[in-house]
Write a sequence for this structure.
């Protein structure tokens, strides 16, 4: 009898649970399918706003209508270019974006219900703070660089900005030459491949709404640079260097997917060096890692490293006589977590990762690459692999 009572109790509990679920479903169904009508909802009230860089946050109170679905703000970011922003009934604010100036902009607010009816409009006039394009352009500067120009600017808003570089051709016509995309707080970029002759450059900045700055125009003669003559390169083996498991001569053979270069185990940091064959003022270089089996930005591929230069290296292997030319970090462009890759991540690594050498760095005859960490081993790791498949360097040989 005890068993029968228990089973009877369980059945009753189960039936109650089913009835409760059905009752809940009915309520949800009724909420999602309110009766359709053609009655316009009330308008928003108590409207206020806060001006932001190239934007404005608008606060309001919703009407008491039970079928409110969302509020929409409609406005023009410039003559003939309309834009709208929606905010659900769960919120009491919306942010209008895309403004390129600090002019006054009229924003029409409408309440929309589940039947698609729109309220009477409520208009608010906002006056945005200077846009990210405007503030970035105020800090834009560029100077003579190797094979082109070196430009910098500040992007405090971390907005998605594009720097557009123009040059005048032989007929005096503007030609689009290069673009630089960034959302970093500071922009720094080298424009390359321009002959060392007087050239008129024009640089402007724009955003995803096509808000454009003025154009900063200058005539600059780029500093001559050329890819270094690798036939003169020689390995420089001195005490203290890491034991290379590959053929170092293949590090500069121009074939990034070969089976040579530099590879070493053991503790970090670890370094190697080589002779450029001539005293050279370096301007930039490219680095390739091991990318077979989709090992981009992982395993023994270099993450942090230093570049040192010397004209008279210590034969005992110390850093006496060496000068630091730069400290570098390999950054995955997409910013995705380890193990995740975008198409751009693969493309940029396959093309070679670019690094600039500071214009203030001295000319040098010998280079030392000091590897601080890899994507598989942190700084000062007791053990770990490090790989570099290929290096390509540019600069100007000194007389």
């Amino acid at each position: 009898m005890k068993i029968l009572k228990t089973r009877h109790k369980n059945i009753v509990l189960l039936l109650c649970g089913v009835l409760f679920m059905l009752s809940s479903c009915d309520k949800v169904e009724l909420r999602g399918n309110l009766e359709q009508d053609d009655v316009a909802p009330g308008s928003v009230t108590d409207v206020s706003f806060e001006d932001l860089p190239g934007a404005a946050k608008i606060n309001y109170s919703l009407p008491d209508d039970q079928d409110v679905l969302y509020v929409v703000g409609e406005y023009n970011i410039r003559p003939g270019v309309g834009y709208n922003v929606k905010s659900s009934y769960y919120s009491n604010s919306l942010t209008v974006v895309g403004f390129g100036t600090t002019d006054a902009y009229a924003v029409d607010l409408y309440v929309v219900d589940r039947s698609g009816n729109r309220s009477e409009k409520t208009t608010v006039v906002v006056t945005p703070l200077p846009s990210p394009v405007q503030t970035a352009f105020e800090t834009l500067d560029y100077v003579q660089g190797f094979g082109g120009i070196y430009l910098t600017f500040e992007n405090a808003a971390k907005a998605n900005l594009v720097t557009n570089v123009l040059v005048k051709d032989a007929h005096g016509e503007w030609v689009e030459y290069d673009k630089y995309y960034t959302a970093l707080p500071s922009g720094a970029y080298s424009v390359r491949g321009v002959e060392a002759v007087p050239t008129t450059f024009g640089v402007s900045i724009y955003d995803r709404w096509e808000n454009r700055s003025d154009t900063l125009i200058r005539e600059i003669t780029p500093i001559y640079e050329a890819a270094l003559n690798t036939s003169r390169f020689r390995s420089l083996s001195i005490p203290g260097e890491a034991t290379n498991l590959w053929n170092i001569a293949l590090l500069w053979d121009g074939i990034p997917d070969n089976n040579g270069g530099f590879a070493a185990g053991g503790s970090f940091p670890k370094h190697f060096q080589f002779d450029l064959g001539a005293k050279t003022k370096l301007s930039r270089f490219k680095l390739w890692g091991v990318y077979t089996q989709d090992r981009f930005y992982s395993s023994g591929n270099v993450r942090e490293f230093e570049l040192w230069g010397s004209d008279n290296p210590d034969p005992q292997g110390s850093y006496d006589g060496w000068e630091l030319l730069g400290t570098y970090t390999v950054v995955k462009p997409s910013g995705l977590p380890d193990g995740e890759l975008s198409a751009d991540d693969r493309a940029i690594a396959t093309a070679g990762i670019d690094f600039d050498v500071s214009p203030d760095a001295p000319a040098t005859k010998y280079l030392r690459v000091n590897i601080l960490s890899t994507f598989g081993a942190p700084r000062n790791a007791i053990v770990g692999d490090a790989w570099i498949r290929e290096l390509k360097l540019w600069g100007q040989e000194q007389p």
